[in-house]
């Protein structure tokens, strides 16, 4: 009696390891779901012609350091591929890359005609999740690429924030910090992507609500090469100045003001976005939670455990 495990269809959303483990395999001499005869189990290592492998359309990385690719290429010439790439079979002599784009590019650069690979079976949504998680965990993505990958996992793979944290091995606060970067003006996002400013700079700027003020501080950072600590000081001064103006316009009990600021800070941290809490002399007020997109709104609703 065969000990072959049945195909599992519910792997999506349980992490890269689960997806790879649960992917369909083919026994020696059998056929896979495309009707292609397989000489080796899909979980074994195979040598595949590089010309038969097409790139992954779900690749989250948009930039590859050419010098690093050349160094990897030289290493592959000497040592070969240490870690096989992972592909899915599309037809008899056609494969699609799941993970390992740098290794594939470096192999081509080295002039090699074949590459070692694992063959897996995955649908488009599984391909997307595997590619995103593999890159987040194994590649040195810049902060914006990580943030975009997190956003795609939330919106396109239908993951909730807590599930996303489990998949990528990060707590919800860390995930929120990356997602908040996508609310910055495009010029600042581009500078962060191009490493003109650091994640620390961006996290300080995001605490300012006004986009014009954000851009003004960003330009000052670039022009004067300000440290993260200096930027944090500038942001505190700006926020304190705004608070003093509001205080002059609407006098509020000092103790009550401190409590409202503490509440506002806690809510902002909890929701991963700047939350506004206002109260008048009669203890009437409002709590405002801004959102920048439908997916951002759904993220907030998930935290509130509210379904539409």
TrEMBL record:
**Domain of life of the native organism:** Bacteria
- One Pfam family of this chain: HTH_ParB
Q: Which SMART domains match?
A: ParB (SM00470)
Q: Which residues form the ParB-like N-terminal domain?
A: 46-136
Keyword check for DNA-binding, yes or no.
yes
- Database matches in SUPFAM superfamilies: KorB DNA-binding domain-like, ParB/Sulfiredoxin
Keyword terms of this UniProt record: Chromosome partition, DNA-binding
Q: Does the keyword section mention DNA-binding?
A: yes
Say which family it is in.
Answer: Belongs to the ParB family.
User: Which named protein is this?
Assistant: ParB/RepB/Spo0J family partition protein
UniProt source species: Shiella aurantiaca
